[in-house]
């Protein structure tokens, strides 16, 4: 659930305060807590094909702790677009960003990396780009209201592209969009960069009883918008449901790393988004020239638990499956640039000369997409809404390291 602030870009989380700490958990207990996600995403099979080597995932967030033992050696600290929001001498907390980075590219630690957090793409690299503050930071309200921070997300996207990112993870959300953000997203896609963003945690807020609010940057065309599922693999009640949602991923009781070699568990579309960004990294590592549209198509075509009729506004085309997405990407790798419209080359038949021809970009429910397009167009002219770190609840599962998990 996103906390809303004043006109400029800010960061906010509902229930972001850490709950009382549980007894210190061993790192192998942490890995055990990841087993449901590893199984749901079919990662063991996917890792036989790709582990993300050579791919850089930019994490546009609150900053990443490069010294966490499950991330050390994999993180490059990039530009801080929030500089000046906190009082002088105050270090960023980097909780949310470290959490998301670990779900994407955590490599564990200990013998064989068998302890701690293993990310979806454990051999990928992370570029940390700080564009939000965690809400307990003293500069949070300054950041949320100062005009000079208005377009930090747009600037962060362009910076990440120019720094060589292959995938951009945006586990962030706000209610309104800007032309600068739309232009930055267009720039990223033109450079072949896959953008993944959270659908938002306002699933209990209905607009005219028909859908939950659209969140940005997830609702921009060309961005992979991710919803969250619960432990029964149904839409989590907090997850936004509207026609921007492309796919879903687990988003409840998700184990991740926190600054200072800590581990946390939480829920939200933030976590689901990070998992999907990891799958995009697996695909880009195996098929580096696959366009963003085809990466999105591979993930949606490979989804499991598909809703009746093939699509709904809660979980999109279904729950992502890494192994199936890689298989679908392999089928698409020979195709040329994608084309839209009803009369495009049949994907099953090669074009003249034996090369695969263009294929149709995935379409969703026409009426809902038309409505969404109108909303998106209007939103670009509106004032900027508050940007939020989106996960509903998080709690610490360990404080200090123990001899058993060193």
SSE order, one letter for each helix or strand? HHHEEHEEEHHEEHEEEEEHHHHEE
Strand order of the largest sheet: 2-5-1-6-8-9-10
Question: What is the CATH level 1 assignment?
Answer: Alpha Beta
CATH structural fold name: Rossmann fold
Percent in helix = 25-40%
Mean pLDDT across residues: 81
Return Rg in Å: 20 Å
Strand content: 15-25%
For the biggest sheet, the summary is: 7 strands, parallel
Total DSSP helices = 11
* Name given to the CATH architecture: 3-Layer(aba) Sandwich
CATH level-four homologous superfamily name: Peptidase S8/S53 domain
| Count of the domains | 1
Uncertain runs with pLDDT below 50, 5 residues or more?
1-25, 338-392, 398-406
Overall shape: it is globular
Q: What structural class do the secondary elements suggest?
A: alpha/beta
Total count of strands: 14
Distance between the termini: 36 Å
Summarize the structure.
The protein is of the alpha/beta class. The chain has 11 helices and 14 strands.
